[in-house]
Amino acid sequence: MSPSWVALIEGFYGPPYTHEQRLELLRWLPSAGLTDYAYGPKDDAFHRASWREPYPAHQLDQLAETLEVAQAAGIVLTLSVSPGLDWRGEEDNEPLVAKVRQLHGLGVRSLGVYWDDVPPGGEDLGRSHARGVAAAMSGLPDDVRWMTCGTDYATSYVTPYLRGFAAELPAGVPIAWTGPDVTSPAVTAAMATELAGGLGHPLLLCDNWPVNDLGMSSVLHLGPAPYREPALRDAVAGIGFNAMRLPLASRLPVSLGVRHWLHPEEDREAAWRSAVEAVPGLMPLARACRSWVDAPGPDPELVGWLESGDPRLLAYLEGGCREGLDPALAAELAPWLESWEAEARVLSWVLRVAAGEDPPPGVDLGVDWLALHRREAQVLGTRLALYGLSYRLADRLLPHPASVVRGENLTDLAVRRVLETLHAQA
């Protein structure tokens, strides 16, 4: 595996990208510095739930065109099979080989066998999964680049499962790893070096940024890329970024992740601001959707404006969030744009009341503020989301209490402070 492996991963839960969305994303990848596209959406039935069944002709035709467009763009396409939900051991080797042969027959020369997000187990399960990878590899010529992902992919140490997996896995096959957590705020070079040494296999850091599926589906991750220390780049064989379920919106955070990976000396905040400013009309929403698990609160500058009574906050809110946005991007972001407008309406009302103005018409604070909490799309900070922070208890991966992000967004902060101020004056 070349250390230049910098991939976009289509591996989220929910409807996969449409064929046209995927082709457009592939054509964009080189401009952001990516080298690879790893296809493995969880809800592609022929990839995962019904993996033994061959891809039907129409989907094979689409995958063939996907490969053609990837090659024209200079992008390496990886296709994969995820057989772990109902793996039966050696008796499943034959259908697994048949499936990877079908993909190989398209001309794909980068393949994966993945075992993530399936029932856990110990050393015996690890050995069984690795033997499946070995069977798939033995069933094809030597012209394939292989990769895999074990069931214990979020860990800082070699589990019994991984001990068995690594022992049976053919030499040189890289193992996907998300860091110590499914969604890892911090990943260190020392951790990667120790884990790779214990496994005897190179690691591919498959960063769960900026993905927003499952318990994160109500939030967008449009902020600066998570910090990854410079030495980490020499401790892993490459990096992949698991994209959001929104292909156009994913471009900004994925490009920021790549930019940070390739230029770790660059200030991430400055890089974020310049990248957002390069997308016409996106700044108002990006500022409202920059929260992540490591910083779930509102944009710090907006909070500063609120605390100091800076008039720029009201100007930001009343300037709107749609001007200049590309219509296709605006359509994709519609739920969050609508939430932004609803929040801005209430927050502007609160700010004007706090400044001593007569309450503007059209807002019933008791009704409208509570209605904001019922909106699915969250902006101006995270009120409630579930991230993949975890810990291990024996062989079990359990959610860490910090995985539940619950807080106040900017509107909540303003309402609470105004109510406290008014009460103090009574």
Written overview of the protein:
Helices cover 42% and strands 12% of the residues. The chain is built from 16 helices and twelve strands. The strands form three sheets. It has an eight-stranded parallel β-sheet with strand order 5-4-3-2-1-8-7-6, with helices on one face. Strands 9-12 form a two-stranded antiparallel ribbon. Strands 10-11 form a two-stranded antiparallel sheet. The longest helix is centred in the C-terminal third of the chain and has 21 residues. It is elongated and about 75 Å long. The model has no long low-confidence stretch (mean pLDDT 95).
Q: Low-confidence spans: pLDDT under 50, at least 5 residues?
A: none
N-to-C SSE string, H for helix and E for strand? EHEHEHEHEHEHEHEHHHHHHHHEEEEH
- Which second-level CATH architecture of the largest domain applies? Alpha-Beta Barrel
Which CATH first-tier class of the largest domain would you pick? Alpha Beta
The computed structural class is alpha/beta
CATH superfamily of the largest domain: Glycosidases
Features of the shown structure:
426 residues, alpha/beta, TIM Barrel
Q: Can you give me a brief rundown of this structure?
A:
This protein has 2 domains: 5-277, Glycosidases (TIM Barrel); 283-425, no CATH class. Helices cover 42% and strands 12% of the residues.
List the helices and strands and how they pair.
Layout: E1 5-10, H1 19-28, E2 36-39, H2 57-73, E3 76-81, H3 93-104, E4 110-114, H4 123-138, E5 145-149, H5 160-168, E6 175-177, H6 189-199, E7 203-207, H7 232-235, E8 238-242, H8 247-262, H9 268-277, H10 283-288, H11 300-308, H12 311-318, H13 327-332, H14 334-354, H15 365-373, E9 384-386, E10 390-393, E11 396-399, E12 404-406, H16 410-425
Parallel strand pairs: 1-2, 1-8, 2-3, 3-4, 4-5, 6-7, 7-8
Antiparallel strand pairs: 9-12, 10-11
Helix pairs in contact: 1-2, 3-4, 4-5, 8-9, 14-15, 14-16
